[in-house]
Amino acid sequence: MRQKKFGLVLVKAVSSITNYVVLAVLLLCLVLGCYALLDSSMVYEETSTQEYAVYRPDADNALTFEDLKAINDETIGWINVYGTNVDYPIVQGEDNDKYIDHTAKNTYSSAGAIFLDYRNKPDLTDFNSIIYGHHMAEHAMFGDLDQFQDRTFFDEHEYGSLYLDRRQGQKEYGITFFAFVETEGNNSELFTPGLEGTEARQAYLDYIQDHAMYWRDATVTPEDQIVLLYTCTENLTNGRHVLVAKLTDEVRPDAFAKNEDSRFHVDAYSLWKQFTKVPIIFWSLGLLTVLLVIRYFYERHLRKKTQQNRKLEESA
Fold first, then answer.
1. Which of 117, 293, 298, 304 is most buried, by CB atoms within 10 Å?
2. How much of the chain is helix, strand and coil, in % rounded to 5?
3. What are the residue boundaries of the structural domains of the chain, listed by start?
């Protein structure tokens, strides 16, 4: 009888220990998952347009932009693609590696920064200048460029602006987008900046038109300055999306401009979309953890009730 009782106690003890171990593992996984989500959220937050809004150059006062240059003297300008979240400072390093994982504030981040090819002149007087940015979720960095795959979006979003700091003459250019190209990252015909010679430049424009997914007639000549906004895409192996624009002296108003309150307004639908982006494994771990916690307290309640019943039986 004692052996049987001892066996039951041992089984209960092992079962209880197993439950605690499983619960501990699930809690650890849940904590690690939450940390991963928080880390991703912080990356997106530090690269959001709201994070840099305070430094945005103003037509009447460029002091805020000067503050950003004081933080990072490799800041050379600001780009705004109207009707998208592309509204960021531009930096230029001594190579094309630094700003892949450093922000415009010169801090480490996997989101990187929007940066000009180191081979280009910082005043954008080259015929063709290349500006790079990561393709990120949450519309961060150049994450909105893939929207130009939609013909209607391309047709409705034709303009932007590009501001250069005082060292480059403190000039603001208008941007007229005239082509959207899907290609590969090793395309040397497209990704060679600073082309010289009228024939080479015309051949370059012809190449863009021949390979463009979309093209609009913007009367571009070899004497113009053009910029290529370059980002990754999952559509192709080593794929790239390139939005091509002509620089103009006319800066058109932003027809999509919103006030800051509405621009960063978060409604119930937006919150729901954020919840749906959480991987299913984290929801599963959370549910299992809750069920184990409920089971633990339920079994504790049953043991307590059993003990009370025994005491009542013994006293009777």
1. 117
2. 45, 20, 35
3. 2-43+279-315, 56-266
Neighbours of 161 (CB within 10 A): 21
Residue type, 312: L
Where are the strands (E) in 226-314, listed by range?
A: 226-233, 239-248
Residues contacting 215, CB < 8 A, separation 6+: 178, 179, 208, 209
pTM for this one? 0.70
> Is the sign of the CA dihedral 51, 57, 61, 67 positive or negative?
positive
How far is residue 112's CA from residue 108's CA, in Å, rounded to a whole number?
8
Question: What is the C-alpha to C-alpha distance for residues 234 and 185, in angstroms, rounded to an integer?
Answer: 12
DSSP string, 216-232: ------TTS-EEEEEEE
DSSP H or E stretch at residue 265: none
Is 56-266 a CATH 2.40.260.10 domain? yes
Tell which residue, 25, 30, 83, 75, has the closest CA to residue 55: 75
The pLDDT tens digits for 45-96 are 555 667 788 888 875 555 688 899 999 999 999 999 999 999 999 999 999 9
